[in-house]
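I am writing to request your help with a piece of structural work I have in hand. Here, with my thanks, is the record as I have it:
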Amino acid sequence: MIEQAGSAAPFRFSTEDVRPSERTAVWREVLGRVHLHLDVEQVGDGPLRATVESHRWSSVSLYFSETTPVRATRTREFVQDGDGDFRLLRADGAGYQYVSDSIDEIVENGRSAFLFNGVAGSVRYLGPCRVTAVRVRRVDIANAIRGFDDRAIRHVGDQTALRLLDAYTDVLRRQGPSDDPVLAAQVASHLTDLVTLALGATGDAAEVARGRGARVARLTALKRDILLNLASPDLTIGAVAARAAITPRYLRMLFEGEGMSFTDFVLEQRLARAHRMIRDPRYADRMISTIAFASGFGDLSYFNRVFRRRFAMTPSEARAHAAAN
């Protein structure tokens, strides 16, 4: 499937939606040459299977793929297109080999490298893998890192920044790109900040990146952790901070910077989940107490009290109102 509906819609491609006899040709011409500006060829004798999804956030693009072994090459022909962007590229499940002129290096499974589009070079995935790439503009990186140059490949070792980047891109993939240009530009700025930190930015540039992109990414990851654990009785500030490898004090500061407390955010999300379930006809046969407990409330009287205060009606009234409309 190839899908591109609207300026902010993700681009999606799947070989499963192409006849087997045409997969290689469509993959090479439509996906490789037209969309990615790469010469893509299959490696090995097995059937070609791949999905690709790309999201555009203003000046930054995110690419996600699951693929059998292939080789993707920026040929000298493609280098003439003037593309001077960089790709932070990671493959999970198998590493990849990068070759360019006298360079021949292996990037191990789950590791990341920073590749320059302005030189001819190829990436060969060493097995079936999941690929994630963050594409950023050279000018944005050069403005943040003093003495930045156009070397073909940089290995990236700052695992803390990479973990934040991974968590942030995962959330962005789930929600999809935005038509709001202001929001898109903010997200692009945050992604660029995280890439510069991963590359080892120092001094003022690092301070700006940590105070902007890293803070937003960490708070986004914390909120996702909370949403995944709403029903857990162990959803405490200490437990969430421990999973994120930060102190409870720093966690509180992150939420306070958003004008809320950790406790208020958790309560609001639990109420929102309970409200959705109570109004959803799929849960009409469930007792309200069951929904309350599934939303993380251990005290039914407390749940009834805060629900009425938040929605100006009791849980039973909310269910009846939804059924009548």
Notes: DSSP finds twelve helices and twelve strands in the chain. The first strand starts at residue 11 and ends at 14. Residues 265-324 form one domain. The radius of gyration is 23 Å.
